[in-house]
Write a structure and sequence with these properties.
About 5% of the residues lie in helices and about 45% in strands. By secondary structure, the protein is mainly beta. Bound molecules: (Z)-L-Arabinonhydroximo-1,4-lactone.
């Protein structure tokens, strides 16, 4: 394990170049970024929808190299996700630091709406939710003279109110500040005081191709806000950027570094097959300059994957290892070890007793709740697909299964669009492997591949155009191909949802009464 970490660190160091940053700075489904600075340290959060734990939190010294240090909402009590789907759960969060306290405010679209949580010590975790009255999505906070202000977007406009963050009480009426410059879905507001102006920066156009970022300013927090004549300050929805390999840019947040330089984080997506994207919306970074008191970003507001700019002095981070083993873990609950592996997520609120460690293996108990269900708690443990070309393997033994039980790997985009490679039992009780393609109501299963034993290595790999499925019965020395299908059917454009592809382990039972268990000795993700 130590050797792998050292090698990863060395590679990360070799890859550093202080004048160029390759976007995205956080790859894969990490949308709606928000950032704050505490001294020399930056913290960034993203949205998480139906997955638990929620709101991944990252740390960086340079805004380019990010390490996931945990998840803000990592106790079940903080994150009710009943019935949450790829359109529900946790939407865009904002992170702020004020007077020794971290604040994270967001919307739980599958529960009571807007809420905030706080902590004075990131290592100790975050408070229970403090629920808020002002509706809309994408809430943000602004602090001034002991007052805490909240903005969000009820009624297609950006509204402001003062709140008591300890109780959630709304202290002033909600007032409309701005509706943007005419784009659809004014959202993602952030309020800043810079010099003599209050700046209100928002996203317009919706999160798809017409996404853009606009800004307005006023000398009073209540307005009136004047639009930047150069709006939008960020969009690829224009002729200059029509061929860029990044699209849909918007939903931004600003941060000032300790050296006085300004930076913007924002989301964008990278089309894979045609105009379709599978990796979800990813996190990007660019420097900001100021012209006539307005922020200027990108090349006339457009963005490419590779843009040369002077970064802050870069500091390498330990990247999360792609290979996860369980041999160091003592027998007992796996759920309790979840903080060691912050990149792994469950679907909705997990049934903790279905995830255990036994003899150095992760044992999933098959559940009657299925991946295609839009509620309940399917037994699933996944991570993001972060690269267009990748491979994802797991070594699995299925025990005590009867016909109808199944366990394996899933390439999961939405409840009704996922590809699964799994082991099950046929009508003669034989152990067989099969691949199933689910796409919005259509489902196709391959033939059965009869297995010589219950143990096999399952593999999914991919490139821009296809996902490929294979399995090995000799511990990964040789693989048998068993399926190939287009990536585009799992893209956001086809399958829908606000999420990106997750690669997961799963186990589901015929009727909930069987005792099937899937033992995994490792899972291994490698981007290519
Ligand atoms: C988010 C909204 C958006 O809350 O998509 O890109 C919504 N922007 O601001 C879900 O991520």
């Amino acid at each position: 394990m130590k050797t792998i970490r050292l090698a990863v660190l060395l590679l990360a160091c070799l890859g550093l170049n202080d004048s160029v940053a390759q976007n995205p700075v956080i790859k894969g489904f990490y949308p709606d970024p928000s950032v704050c600075r505490v001294g020399e340290d930056f913290y960034l959060v993203t949205s998480s929808f139906q997955f638990f734990p929620g709101v991944p939190i990252f740390h960086s010294k340079d805004l380019v190299n990010w390490e996931q240090i945990g998840n803000v909402l990592d106790r079940q009590e903080q994150l009710p996700l009943k019935d949450a789907t790829c359109w529900g759960g946790i939407y865009a969060p904002t992170i702020r630091y004020n007077d020794g306290v971290f604040y994270m405010i967001t919307t739980n679209c599958s529960s009571k709406g807007n809420f905030l949580v706080t902590t004075t010590d990131l290592r100790k975790g975050w408070s229970d939710p403090v629920w808020l009255k002002q509706g809309g999505i994408d809430p943000s906070l602004y602090f001034e003279d002991g007052k805490v202000w909240m903005v969000s977007n009820p009624n297609d406009g950006i509204y402001l109110c003062q709140i008591d963050p300890k109780t959630g009480e709304q202290l002033t009426e909600s007032v409309l500040l701005w509706q943007g410059d005419g784009g659809r879905y004014p959202e993602a507001p952030h309020l800043y005081k810079i010099g003599e102006y209050y700046y209100l920066m928002i996203a317009e156009g919706g999160t798809e191709l017409a996404h853009s970022e606009t800004i307005a300013r006023s000398k009073s927090i209540f307005g009136p806000y004047e639009s930047n004549p150069d709006n939008p300050i960020l969009t690829n929805c224009c002729r200059a950027a029509q061929g860029n390999s990044v699209q849909g840019i918007g939903h931004a947040d600003l941060v000032e570094a300790a050296d006085g330089s300004w930076w913007m984080v924002f989301l964008g997506h990278r089309p894979m097959s045609g105009a379709n994207h599978n990796l979800g919306r990813e996190t990007f970074l660019l420097p900001v300059t100021w012209r006539d008191g307005w922020p200027v970003v990108g090349k006339n507001g457009t963005v490419s994957e590779r843009m040369d700019f002077q970064t802050l002095p870069q500091k390498s981070v330990v990247k999360r290892p792609g290979r996860v083993t369980f041999s160091d873990y003592a027998d007992g609950s796996f759920f309790l070890r979840r903080r060691d592996l912050p990149e792994l997520v469950y679907m909705r609120n997990p049934k903790e007793s279905f995830y255990n460690i036994k003899s150095g293996k992760l044992v999933l108990t098959a559940s009657a709740d299925r991946l295609s269900d839009v509620s309940g708690s399917p037994v699933f443990l996944g991570r993001r697909q972060q690269d267009m070309a990748f491979s994802f393997d797991a070594s699995m033994t299925l025990r005590d299964a009867v016909r109808g039980d199944e366990a394996g790997l899933t390439v999961f985009m939405t409840e009704d669009s996922h590809y699964d490679i799994f082991v099950t039992r046929d009508e003669n009780g034989r152990s067989v492997l099969r691949v199933r393609y689910n796409f919005v109501g259509l489902s196709h299963e391959t033939k059965d591949y009869v297995l010589s034993s219950d143990r096999c290595v399952l593999r999914v790999s991919g490139d821009k155009e296809y996902y490929y499925f294979s399995f090995s019965q000799d511990d990964g020395r040789t693989f048998t191909d068993c399926g190939k299908v287009g990536t585009r059917y799992l893209s956001s454009e086809c399958a829908g949802g606000f999420t990106g592809v997750m690669l997961g382990l799963y186990a589901q039972s015929a009727n909930g009464k069987t005792k099937a268990k899937a033992e995994f000795s490792y899972l291994d993700y490698a981007g290519k």
